[in-house]
Amino acid sequence: MKKEIENEFTSLLELHQNILHKICKLYTTDIDSHKDLFQEMAIQIWKAYPTFRGDAKFTSWAYRIGLNTAITIYRGSKRKVGTVNWDISIENMRYEEYNSEEECQLQLIYAAVRQLNDIEKALIYMYLEDRDYGEISETLGISEVNVRVKMNRIKTKIKTIIAKKGTYHE
What domains sit in the chain, N to C, each tagged with a CATH number? Predict the structure, then answer.
């Protein structure tokens, strides 16, 4: 029975791992941190899996746990002194030289999203995943009206951040 549960969990996690990778991309800036956060989210989801009743979609449930894990780790890391992995910085610089204009705009958007607070990041991520406002409100525990208001403010904030950093075209 335990092996069946493990196989079921592994299949669900493999099928929906992109959700966790996207959360990692919002909260991390290097590959090692991304891998660490992904692993921690997978562990937390596994620990909570026995409580999954199926009332919500697995993706919404896993997203909530993954997001809470990222927020907890992110808040803890704000108190630490930041370091830069030189090799990764150089690698990123070389990569940026070969980016098309669209890829550069995407990097500007990700940089802007990283400047948002935790709830704003969660909202914009779910919005970009084409989640409807009802699902976003259910996952985050806020009203649909509040989701709509916050989304409008976040869009304005992102446009402002991007306008300060570089060119932004709608």
Answer: 1-85 (1.10.1740.10), 99-165 (1.10.10.10)
